[in-house]
Amino acid sequence: MAATKKLSSLFPLFSLLCFISIFLLSLFIRAIPSLPNCQQRNCPLPQLDPLKFLETYRDTNIGFIGDSLNKNMFVSLFCTLKGVSSEVKKWRPAGADRGFTFLRYNLTIAYHRINLLVRYGRWSASDNGGELETLGFKEVIELMLMWFAPSKFDPVKSPKLFFENNLPVIPPIHPDVGLVKALKNMIVFVARGSRPGTIKFFRTQSPRHFEGVDWNQGGSCQRLQPLLPEQLSLQIVFQVEDLFSLKNNRINVEARMVNQHLYKALGESNFHVLDITRMSEFRADAHPATAGGKKHDDCMHWWLPGITDTWNDLFVTHLNGLKTRN
What's the pTM value of the predicted model, to 2 decimals? Predict the structure, then answer.
């Protein structure tokens, strides 16, 4: 990677269903604390100072691990830093997507694409029988070890089976239980492979803004204004809750639902949670939609510049706070 020895390591972002992410740094996990003097409204969030960031984090590796949403955040940070330091070396190591080293500061940021937290595959019934066969599973079943909202899970028509040590978990467990198991397995895996002193962040779910129906049925996101004007009105709050409330259980409910299990699974680990969900729920206007000739509205990814720049503002603010306390 870089020509000189790195002194510290930061690794952000795993992902699940194009939503979840991880960063790596240390201390016991807790939700991102409130910013100093931060009130519920009009909370000042310092904008990332790229030159100060490069100076502060010399000789550091920062890794974004996950899917296209993590790439969104990676590109945002790279573009911000590239604006003040053009001496950059691009590299592409085996198994990784891409990386850039800012030579003057020996600071490397990299992106490694991985879409799932655990392996997935397919299973089909055996003529010789087995535990699953005795439960009535006879057809080929897709083993998608990822999260799906209960509304998308049918234990008969589209069961999701989980395996441990190559053996099926019997009786079959619900996807939310499987998600917690997968997260806990990930925690152990990362702990074993992380360098001492690595700081670990896990980004919460990035909300979608499909309205009407889901993406594969023609759902759209054609709003031109965010759901957050200068003065937060009750009407706007009701609009957000209508889209994301667990009680309503509508199209975009997965973000908050997964976050519940995320906090449960990571609560006793040494991950920090970077909570970007609530702030992003208001930005119904910030998706590409049909731009670029897409056949359906993209209401999941984000424009750049855009909300992912704010995610990095939050990340760096919290990171600076950890550095100060340590």
Answer: 0.80
